[in-house]
Every structure is written in structure tokens, then in C-alpha cells.
Amino acid sequence: MKATRKCKFGPAGNSLSFYAEGNKSTAQAFAWLKARGLDAYEYQAGKGLYASDDTFRIIKSKAAEYGIAVSLHGPYFISLSSADDDIRMKSVRYITQSASAADMLGADIFVVHSGSAAKLEREEAMRKAEDTLEKAASAMSAEGFEAKAGIETMGKINQLGTVDEVIRLCKVCPEKFYPVVDFGHLNARTNGGIKTEDDYKRIFDMIAAGLGPERAENLHCHFSKIEYTGMGEKKHLTFADDKYGPDERLFIKAVVSLGVTPTVICESDGTMAEDAKHMKNIYEEMIK
Ligand SMILES: [Zn+2]
To answer: Which range marks the domain in which residue 193 is found?
Structure first.
């Protein structure tokens, strides 16, 4: 596969240590990440897109200056599958707002959650999610946004977001909707189902079979250790965890063995930059 491309690693938002060292704003994050050898950053807008357009543009120029690839995590209140049509139509609006912010940030992808299937039959929830995405694709085209929307695999069993469901949702408009695989979520929703290198490879294979090899090669990923219960995801942990997993070394082994080059965003609780660097170190060691 593409020998010139390499995996990129970075944090979801800012580590506790970033602030402990006296930094105050995300504009300062890119020099900080570069100094630590990282090359990706996911801007967090889970609670909403509150920053000004100017702030987004400053982040874009700082990220470009230090060679950091930026992505955006869109609002958590987006629900593609809500039983309430008004919430779904508002979600179309939040998606176009996220696309606009992503373009200003220079982010090529923004991540959205598909929503809950708690109140509806799963198939009915999927149909609603597909309908919302059709409307979002039209709105994104009409407004001419360039960023792609990433549909994320989710950690709770009652959320839409198995690998198969994400593939099906991306198929609504494969030019605009890209899969985002959160391996911690998949491990949590299967109660620790990701145990071996092959378990990771199978997920890349499913993406390649469902959406084409290019989507698997350049996959946008989230990776963190996540505590789970019988219902799936409970809480994000750090790499100090050795109970819940999934195992980062086997993940990197699978990536290197397949020759794929994902962007890997670490969502550890407070140590996301440190744990991203830990994964990058393993990667650099394995590709030597
Ligand atoms: Zn997410």
C-alpha cells in the first residue's frame, strides 16, 4: 500500500499536563504537540460549537504552522435516530454547523454520533438515521462544505453504531460520510470482544469490504481503554488500565501487518497526549 503515508497519532482535546504546564488556549496546543512528536489533534465540540470563527481560523493557521492534522468532534446532542422529528431536523442543522466549523479549522473530517435506538425498534432507528443523513448530505452539498462527516462506532449497546451499522449509514452518501472506528467503544459494546490481532484486522477487513479499501487504509480511529458493564461503555480510562482493554500493542501490530495508515486519536481520561505518544512510540518501533 502507500509507502509514503504513515499513521498519525494525537489527542482528543488537551491533556491535563498541557494546562498544568501553564498553557491556557488551544491555539498553544500545536507547538506543544509538535515538541512531543505528535501529528494529529481532535478539537472537542461535544458540548457545542461555542468558539468564534476567528478562533477556528487561528487554530487552523497554528496547526498548519506545526504540521498537525486537525479533526473535529461534533456536538454529542446530534441524534440521527431520534423518535422526535424536530430533534432530527435540528441535528441536520448541527451537522452543517459542524461542517462549517471543520472547514474553518482546516479539519478534513468531523465526527458525529448516530444516536440511540432505545425508544425504537433497531431497524426503525436505522431508517430514521438514514433519512437524517440524506437530508444532511443535501444540506452539506447545497452549502458547499468540504469536510467529511465521520460516523462513529458507539460504545453502548442501545446506541446505533456497530461496524455494520456504521457501514450502512456511510452508504447513504459514501463521498460525504466516512466511518470512524472507536476501538474502545467496540470492545466495550462486545464486553471485551477485541482480544487478538486478528480481531482488529477483521474490523479493517469489514470496512474495506463494505466501503472499499481506501476507507480502511486511511481510517479515522479513536483509541482508548474503556470500562464497561453488560450495557457496554461506562467510563474512559487511561493506559494505566490493564483490566478492560483493548490492547494498544496488538492494535498497532494489526495496523503494521495490514499496511494501513490510520489517524489515531486517543481519548484517554486526562492523559490523551501521553497515551497517543505511547502508541506512536510502539508504531515507530514496529516499522523500523
Ligand atoms: Zn465520539
So the answer is: 8-287
